[in-house]
Amino acid sequence: MTRFFISLLLLTATTMAEQVSAPRALVGPSPVVVSLDGMSFNKDVLPILQRNCQTCHRPGEAAPMSFLTYESTRPWAKAIKQAVVTRKMPPWFADPGHGSFRNDPTLTQQEIDILSAWVDQGSPEGKAEDKPKPVQWPSGWRIQPDVVISIPEAHVVPAKGSGEIKAFTVPNPFHEDTWVRAIEVRPGNASVVHHVMVQVPEDTPAPSFSWGASAAACVAAPSASLVQQDFNEGLPASIANRLNGSPPAPQVNLPKNFAILEAVYAPGAPPMDFGIYDSAKLIRGGGDLRIEVHYTPNGTATSDQTRIGFTLAKEPPEHRFITLAPKSLAKAGTRIPAGEANWETRGELEFGQDAQLVWLMPHMHLRGKDMRFNLVDPNGRSQTVLDAKFNFNWQLGYEMDNPIRVRRGTRMFVVAHHDNSANNPYNPNPAAEVGWGDLTSEEMVLPWFGVLVNPDADPEKILSIRQGGCSSGLGSVPIAPLRVPGVSAPIPALPLPTLPLPTLPGR
Ligand code: HEC
User: Which tens digits make up the pLDDT trace of 308-359?
Assistant: First the structure.
């Protein structure tokens, strides 16, 4: 059962990455197949495996079986058909109805048909001359790191167990603020490393703040009225009134509501190359770096020493790339009841300045079920930018195909669900009520995302918050209705005037 669910899930990851070494860039699209007769491994199947599967299915990577050769793939033929027909593989959790993502590994229907037909035809190897050239998978670093750090020592991973999230603290290799153009996380043993996060810890520990803990942010600050007028100009009175009933979050920076993540890794993910957006990360100098590694046993006792490489930017970038990690949206004081299969949390952020949204990553714990992100621009138009299932074992990041311009005043609504029922195979204890916190046994609702802003932008001023408690008034704002799994719900189209979006420099 667990195996079933694991393979059904997710994968991939998170990177803003240039697909430098990804197979898509190395192998052309499959030829259009008019007939599914006479499929062979060499001619029809291997090209698909190279493009879509070998990132993980090769020695040293996350998947336990290699699809590099006919010999190693043939025993898995039936399982391959099953995995692709049910869309368990390649792992990907975004609802295809919303957003388009550059790291989407989903097979086309034609590719699925080819793999199935090959299996149905007895999985023949075919002629040697039809075989495509093997992909030159990189061994070693894919970026050229100027600086390499490592977790302090090899960490022992036992053969069995439910996995462990381990946080290491290492000295920050940067003594002053430094522009970094690419970051690569290299697990020492990719088969046991399910995710890695690299972060500059906050100077002072965050007070245990949780959205909804106080209602203060629900009240419009005096300064908000100006912004509000600006918002509502030209809107039909009915809509303007509704927005008035839900005033902009005050532009105050409640301390420590956002952490800044420097890098995230998940299996199969290419390095994070910020250069594709003419951007770079500004890593704060001094202090320590925190490296969190999620270890999952693979059946054999082993060890891992994950390393992280940084390539410095040669010149100041056009944009600053910031990965923002808001604190949990969950409402303090609430608890997920035992057995609850669809616990809903809502939260709301507001952009205090123009930005371009390039990456999204839902983060929850074992009971996480799904997360949806909606942008509502100042004239009320709503757009669902991601609606994704969540699986704890596969922390997946979603890279926008094209950056989404976000005007100051745009709100981001986040709706997440947790499954604390016995139907959730990861649930360690469906009989327990669950509260919010950092422990894996507790829950959280973290909508992480990456934005491009001007290089001199103050990260503290990019967003303001509207605490979870305000979101009950969300009904007044046109967001897409909640979706029932398998039933697609239309986004309500609002007949609103379009305001011109300001142009960000560069793009
Ligand atoms: C991002 C990494 C990744 C990619 C890409 C990927 N897989 Fe997997 N796959 C895995 C991992 C990890 C497992 C082992 C999961 C488990 O069962 O615990 C797995 C398991 C499988 C299994 C065994 C399923 C089972 O029931 O035990 C099959 C078959 C499979 N993958 C086929 C594919 C095919 C075909 C593709 C490409 C179309 C693909 N995978 C792409 C990571 C990946």
Answer: 999 999 998 999 999 988 877 887 788 999 999 999 998 888 898 899 999 9
Residue whose entry in the numeric block shows the structure tokens 């291997």: 46
* CA–CA distance, 240 with 47 (Å, rounded to integer): 54
pLDDT digit string, tens, across residues 446-504: 899 999 999 988 887 887 765 443 433 333 333 333 322 333 333 333 322 233 333 33
Mutate to test the pocket of ligand 1, among 76, 87, 89 (most ligand atoms within 8 A of CB): 89
CA 227 – ligand 1 centroid, Å:
49
pLDDT band at 233 (very low <50, low <70, confident <90, very high): very low
Sign of the torsion formed by the C-alpha atoms of 363, 466, 438 and 255 = positive
Do 176 and 313 touch, CB atoms closer than 8 A? Answer: no
The string of DSSP codes covering 327-344 is PP-SPTT--BPTT-S-EE
Q: Which two tokens stand for residue 422?
A: 């016995």
SS3 string, 115-179, reads: HHHHHHCCCCCCCHHHCCCCCCCCCCCCCCCCEEEECCCCEEECCCCCCEEEEEEEECCCCCCEE
Instruction: Return the residue whose CA atom lies nearest to atom 9 of ligand 1.
Output: 63
> How far apart (Å, rounded) are the C-alpha atoms in residues 347 and 329?
6
Give the residue, by CA position, lying nearest to ligand 1 atom 21. Answer: 7
Ligand 1, from 56, 110, 113: best to mutate by most atoms within 8 Å of Cβ?
56
Helical packing angle, 109-120 and 77-85, nearest 10°: 150
Torsion of CA 431, 435, 437, 439, to 10 degrees: -10
Higher pLDDT, 400 or 478: 400
Q: Is the N-terminal amide bond of 90 cis, ω within 30° of 0?
A: yes
Of 324, 326, 323, 288, whose CA–CA distance to 209 is shortest? 326
Nearest residue (CA) to ligand 1, atom 23: 79
Structural domains of the chain ordered from first start: 22-130 (no CATH), 141-204+256-317 (2.60.120.230), 221-251+329-507 (2.60.120.230)
* Closest ligand 1 atom to 191 CA: 12
Rg (C-alpha) for the chain, rounded Å, is: 23
Query: How far apart are the CA of 90 and the centre of ligand 1, in A?
Result: 6
For residue 375, with 0-12 CB atoms within 10 Å meaning exposed, 13-18 middle and 19 or more buried, which class applies? Answer: buried
Q: Whose CA is nearest to atom 14 of ligand 1?
A: 63
**Cα torsion 240, 244, 249, 251: sign:** positive
